Fold:
Amino acid sequence: MDRVAIGIPAYGSQSKDWWGPLVRQAAELHKQNIELVDLHVVGSMMTDVSRNHIVDDFLKSDVEWLRWLDADNVDKLGSIRRLIDTRKTLVTGIYTKREEMGDNVAYFSTPEGAYRTVSGYTPGEIFPIQAAGMGGCLVHRSVFEDIQRSYFMFDLAGGGVVTVHKDDIRGDVFDDALDPTDGLAIDGALRLRLRQPTRPKPFAFFMLGFGRTEDYGFFEMAARCGHRLWLDSGVEIGHLGEKVYMPADTRREEVKQLQKRFYEALLFQ
Structure:
């Protein structure tokens, strides 16, 4: 039997449209040969803080899988079983932004180092991507363990934390002396003074900053540790806003728009 914990970063209250599917999912898991060991729920205005505390709690157990479910994502029965059955250490379902014809919250990387939205796939395909929203992601504990073995976490002199791969460290990073170049951009590189953590804190798997959401850095660290992110497009997850937005709704709307343009073109021929 596969053993799973569900991690929920929460802020505020959730509606019945969110709680109902979660309770039904939890009640059915044993029928799919899955033991739901725990729910790790952490509430904070900072999503990265919530996620890091959830992982910290998860790693204190011996549970194999952590399934993320954000407090505005609606799961379907069977989604966890299907993700586990891919036997990928890092795999996600797919959901869209909370709008009509919303873009997919799943991304390929570009040669320039940016990200572009995944599109043009056949529903049901399983293929590698580089980033996604965490709201439907399944992570094997080895991903977190390998990141912790490969990265060091440091405090920044001006506040906050940063992770650095062990192969990228040159010289002494523990000097607390004032440095007049701290915070300056020198030869195209931003210089930031690093310090040893001053108190125990959860490892920074997730970090908001530099205009990016907290998930990009996690997937980049995981990839460098040998864990490729896969997308199972057959696992469709709702995104709760004014209604529950589903990828299938976007596809239907796209077909309607194509049909409309086709008929308009015939009309004006």
Observations:
- The helical segments are 16-28, 47-59, 79-85, 141-150, 215-224, 247-267.
- The chain has two domains: 2-142+209-256, 146-195.
- The radius of gyration is 21 Å.
- The mean pLDDT is 89.
